[in-house]
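#onboarding

Welcome to the new folks! Below is a worked example of what a typical request in this channel looks like: someone posts a single protein sequence, and someone else replies with the predicted structure as tokens. Don't worry about understanding the tokens yet, we'll cover that in week two.

Example request:
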Amino acid sequence: MIDGPTDEVQMTNDETLLKCVRHFRIAFTLLVITSSSAFGSTKGDRSTQLSGYKAVRVHYGPLNKMIMSVRINGQPANLLVDTGSNEVILDAAAAESFGVQPSQPGSNEIFQDAAAAESFGGQPSQRSLRYIRRSRINGQLLPVGFAQSLTAGNMSFGSVLVTLRNSSRSDDGNAHVDGVLGLDVLTRYKAVINCRTKVIFFKVDPTRQMHLSGVAASEKFTRVSMRQEENGALTAPCSIHGQPARLLIDTGSFVTIFTEPVLKSLGVGLQPTHISARFPTGTSRKVSAAQITDLKIGDFKVRPGKFGVTPSPNFAPRQGSSRMFGILGMDTLYNCHAIIDLDGMNLFLK
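Example response:
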């Protein structure tokens, strides 16, 4: 998984960054209705019917978790939709209850990366599984299991490889999740994720095209080209004070957060808070706040506001050859009506 803020955050009554987060939660009820299926609301069945695609509804839990209700081997489960993860990850205890067991290698030929299954045609199988024992995430080698079936609504993802991780994270309220739906499945089905209207479209007919760019222009969206880095990270161009860099697009991060060295080098003042964020590596970092007035994502100008700032974790300085400013999280994605198009590799904002 790409390092970055997770959904576990210790919070107090700090009145700087938390004010923005509270406002975001309230704003969930204020959905905007537009004319296109991909850009419009989820009201009624017709808004989620699109030839060549299957639509799956998601819902938001506390701390801005985008949650998809699924069935794993026929058993109900909740997965966090996380573009900051390259893989499907399940809590080990939950996986066992679904009948998903760690693979037992039967020979000395072992690929240590679950992506090796691609050599067998992209869809994992029992044949490919016996060559895979561990997947490396954040420096850890974790066991890999095999789910015979993964479905969501009327969408079937078939059989999938899943990385198994012991989780000590406590869930908040009704936001219980059993794992993560990562980019491997999302990109395989060219997902179009509408962060505002809570619908994800999965392409099931390769000949079909959604043609979002034309609709986006008529709905006054700004198109921003995305890129997948060598390590799998999904990024978009950005700038502050005219200085160009990139942001990780991470629907698993509850807020947008920048790295402290970058903002200090740009002369942006920081304010202390009582918030800390826990990263997938297990480290916990204090979060400051910064007022940023000229953030641009591509050509889209984000409204001035307070953003989180943390000392640079492992993810931050570069992804491959790209300079990174930080993580584009769910607060900004929602407030900017973001649509993440993994088919055309575009991010639409307004």
